[in-house]
Amino acid sequence: GPAHLFRLAGKCFSFVESTYKYEFCPFHNVTQHEQTFRWNAYSGILGIWHEWEIENNTFVGMWMREGDSCETKSRQTKVHLVCGKSNKLAYVSEPSTCVYSLTFETPLVCHPHSLLVYPTLTEALQRKWDEAEQLLYDELITDQGYKNILKEIFEEAGLLKATEEKEAEKQSKKISLEFETVEKCIKEYKQLSEEIKKLRVLLGQHGIAYKGNSGE
Length: 216
Fold this sequence. Notes:
The chain is an alpha+beta fold. It has helices at 123-137, 143-156, 164-175, 182-205, and strands at residues 13-17, 20-25, 29-34, 43-55, 58-65, 69-70, 73-74, 76-83, 88-96, 99-106. Its main location: Golgi.
């Protein structure tokens, strides 16, 4: 994520509401402590640092997931980052059961470009994003296709966590690069042939000569 936000790492910010004290430790966790003299006062984790919330290619918040169990699921918290004069936890709510919402104010996000995703990426991933932009502009992919590519880029950058199914798929791809059946090979060949046709058209539109043979 944005390097300038790393200076918040190792610090914790608290907010007291009624008998509860909430504590947010960026890039670490969110906890809740019941401040009463009852023998079984609740004290637990509302979420552990997991991934970013990204909207319109901008970091808008931090997801803290896999907190203490709550009925059939784990507690989780979304921390909204908003511009403020000082670093402070400003507001806490529970919009749905065991899903919490925190508002964290900080001067570190006041600059209009402070939360842009693109500058935080490696050159290789920036190039991948540029290529996706070009494909969208040339109408060779749909809006949904463009969003899918961006999601993959964000996952590759470690900003979003890939689903367990995706991770398993990645691992299986690493293990075997062979086609399971002839039908699958033919299907892949057809898809690649279509892709090559589109790329040839794109090169032609930009006046770039293409040299190749059927073997390639």
